[in-house]
Amino acid sequence: MTPYGLDVVIPCYNEEDALPVTLPRILSYLETLQSDPRLALGHWRVILVDDGSRDRTWRIIEDHGRAGRVVGLKLSRNFGHQNAMLAGLTYASADAIITMDCDLQDDINTIEAMLLSYQDGFDLVLGVRSSRASDTFFKKGTARLYYSLLTLFGVNIIEDHADYRLMSQRALRALLAHHEVNLFLRGIIPAIGFKTSIIPYVRQARELGCSKYTLGKMLALAIDGITSFSVLPLRMIALFGIAVFLVSSVTGLWVLVERFVHSATVVSGWASTMLPLLALGGLQILSIGILGEYIGKIYLETKRRPRFIVETTTGQTC
Ligand code: UDP
Ligand code: MG
């Protein structure tokens, strides 16, 4: 096979503890792969995106940028993991592109199998966690709940595939043709098609530094995942509206019959008044909240604001 180029895109946010250890590991691993004739790996680069870190992350990237293999992009502020990854992807020009995190929780040795799949003609090679043993009880539980919710809402997503994947250049072009501001890359991936293969790997616990995905960021990503790919919550509101309408029509009819046919004044008890009042009030507010969530998304999408802003770069960006 003729040699092909590889770009590895890695978003980094406040990673001064992890990066000095993991980056040399990544670089030397890629060098080893290049010396393996089976893989036919030609030119490769590592594109590191500093997602508005407040620590020494950018300094570390700049130091490596001088050495040749490393390209650095510094975003003007923290845009979030998905947008940082997108920023790196727009700079990726190689035949094959891999995205991964900088903490090496995702087994780096999987890259070899990814490249072999790429050589076999796969445009998308997805790393899928075969075990969640290293995750906390909370993370495991919320992940299961989330995947069941996505299935319920009809969102097509590959379970336990995060953002560790290889894309061919044409798959990347297809991905970049999606211009949504509310970015949920792992939801777009199954939608773009192409020949896809899956590679299982065991996810490790984070050894260096701490998780940069706060509960807030995780929740925002989870909501983006549902609202960007499913309108079922809106449809459920409509169905609920129809059900309430039917029930109230029947009740209304009953009240009219009682009043005019039986000449009775219906005196209902406290419970039968309060319970529907509270239940309907709560459900109405919840429904308005769901509507608001979608309207908010439309608002953000129509403004077409940039999804990331690059402040400066280092290394060979093209
Ligand atoms: N990250 C980022 N921007 C953010 C949060 C995280 O670029 O706002 C990066 C982070 O540096 C890491 C990757 O995204 O390389 C995944 O984050 P992390 O390992 O903290 O998440 P977890 O593995 O705990 O889900
Ligand atoms: Mg991590």
TrEMBL record:
InterPro entries noted in UniProt: Glyco_trans_2-like, Glycosyltransferase_2, Nucleotide-diphossugar_trans
GO molecular function: glycosyltransferase activity
Entry membrane topology: Multi-pass membrane protein
Superkingdom, taxonomy of origin: Bacteria
Compartments where located: Membrane
Domain Glycosyltransferase 2-like positions: 8-173
Any single Gene Ontology cellular-component annotation: plasma membrane
Annotated keywords: Glycosyltransferase, Membrane, Transferase, Transmembrane, Transmembrane helix
Pfam families in UniProt: Glycos_transf_2 (PF00535)
Segments crossing the lipid bilayer: 237-257, 277-296
Protein name: Glycosyltransferase family 2 protein
